[in-house]
Amino acid sequence: MSSPQHLPSSHPRGRWEPALSLLLAVWSHQDSSADAATPPAPPRLKAGGQQCRNPEGVQKRGRESLGGIPSLIAGLFVGFLAAYGAYRVSNDKRDVKLSLFTAFFLATIMGVRFKRSKKIMPAGLVAGLSLLMILRLVFLLL
Question: Which domain of life does the UniProt lineage start with (predicted)?
Fold first, then answer.
């Protein structure tokens, strides 16, 4: 039987042989400075190593993951209101009530969140953009 080095490059095992040998070399690597009595340290992955050691960082489980559902629904609803308001403004420049309400609502809610958390992203950014939208809509009415 032939060894993997003699397989043609079109053969699946022949094509993956360098990667497999590198992977085996990494996993079988032992620290040369360690004592013979101490077992070798387990190999560590460079990318995503923190998530592998902390499964809670990867995915929340149980009741903790339900916190995003109301936020998702509220975001979709406000996004729909903003899109419909923009559609109405594009048809009639004086019909800004819905867009003005949506921008005021977002500026109020996100402004309160920004004041409480002191974080620019995302609450401060959305509050600032909503205030700019209110200014734009008021200038459309003038």
Answer: Eukaryota
Answer whether residue 54 shows pLDDT above 60: no
Q: Determine the distance from the C-alpha atom of residue 46 to the mean position of all C-alpha atoms in its chain, rounded to a whole number.
A: 20
Supply the pTM of this predicted model: 0.52
On the question of pLDDT at 67 being above 60, the answer is yes
The CA distance from 129 to 136, in Å, is: 10
Q: Which of 110, 124, 117, 114 is nearest to 75 (CA)?
A: 110
Given a contact cutoff of 8 angstroms between Cβ atoms, the answer to whether 106 and 126 are in contact is: yes
SS3 content of the chain, % helix, strand, coil (to 5): 70, 0, 30
Is pLDDT above 60 for 137?
Answer: yes
The pLDDT of residue 85 is above 80: yes
Q: Is residue 31 helix, strand or coil?
A: coil
Are the C-beta atoms of 4 and 14 separated by less than 8 Å? yes
Average pLDDT estimate for 119-125: 90
Buried b (16+ CB within 10 A) or exposed e, 48-86: eeeeeeeeeeeeeeeeeeeeeeeeeeeeeeeeebbeebe
